[in-house]
Specification:
Elements lengths: L1 H12 L2 H13 L2 E2 L3 E2 L5 H8 L3 H14 L2 E6 L2 E6 L1 H18 L5
Antiparallel strand pairs: 1-2, 3-4
Helix pairs in contact: 1-5, 2-4, 3-4
Amino acid sequence: GNMNNIIKYYRAIANPVRLKVFLHVAKESEGFAPNEPKKESCVTEISKALKIPQPTVSNHLAVLKKVGLVKSISVGTHCYQYVNKRSAKELLSHTQYIFTQAHKNPY
């Protein structure tokens, strides 16, 4: 269940380049495609912004989508990447738990 998801998420973002791609998607994760998309986040934009080759960005996005961290929406020739709310909530809950437990000791 939930623990398997957490393991998948951490495994996916353990790769430093993939983490950069994920954090970039998070930064650009605004608006709602197709109605009011705020930022376009096609592979080309991500590639330019992070100075990473397009095929590399595509591969990393594929992994992030497969584990459920990122949702991709295509509107005509445009595409938008969004952080998936459910996976973000699971990561937050897990991190919150660790944070809470850490504050039950004097260190």
